[in-house]
């Protein structure tokens, strides 16, 4: 039984409505009660993304605003967290052309290790 504030990640379920694009994109989020934090986005789709934040304390279901490079702010909700990896769902899906722009022009392979 999971007794922490962390929900189980949905990564293994393969029940996604759209494909995720594996990327290495710099981003930033701000919770309603905290300062902004720089993060690395690991994958992204029209409806959400997964990112790495080494010292994250974001609780599941918390609302955040989110930036992907210079795009945003994007309103989102934390759907799951497993240690330093967080999965979020955007309140409004990204337009397909915005997602394509992120994947084609903002990806920095190898930038975060």
Written account of the structure:
- The N and C termini lie far apart (33 Å).
- It contains 1 helix and 6 strands.
- The protein has a 6-stranded antiparallel β-barrel.
- It has one domain: predicted glycosyltransferase like domains (Thrombin, subunit H), CATH 2.40.10.
- The chain is mainly β.
- A hairpin with a 2-residue loop joins strand 5 and strand 6.
Radius of gyration equals 13 Å
Q: Major sheet: size, sense and barrel closure? A: 6 strands, antiparallel, barrel
Strand content: 35-45%
Task: Tell me the CATH superfamily.
Answer: predicted glycosyltransferase like domains
Q: In which order are the strands of the major sheet placed?
A: 1-2-3-6-5-4
Q: How many strands in all?
A: 6
Low-confidence stretches: 1-14
Order of helices and strands: EEEEEEH
Distance between the termini: 33 Å
User: How would you describe the shape?
Assistant: globular
Q: Look at the structure and give the mean pLDDT.
A: 84
User: What's the CATH first level?
Assistant: Mainly Beta
Enter the CATH topology name: Thrombin, subunit H
Helicity, as a percent range: under 10%
Structural class: mainly beta
Task: Throw out a few tags for this protein.
single chain; 1 helix; 113 residues; 6 strands; mainly beta; Thrombin, subunit H
Short overview:
The chain is mainly beta and 113 residues long.
Explain the layout of strands and helices.
Elements: E1 21-31, E2 36-44, E3 48-52, E4 63-68, E5 71-82, E6 85-90, H1 96-106
Antiparallel strand pairs: 1-2, 1-4, 2-3, 3-6, 4-5, 5-6
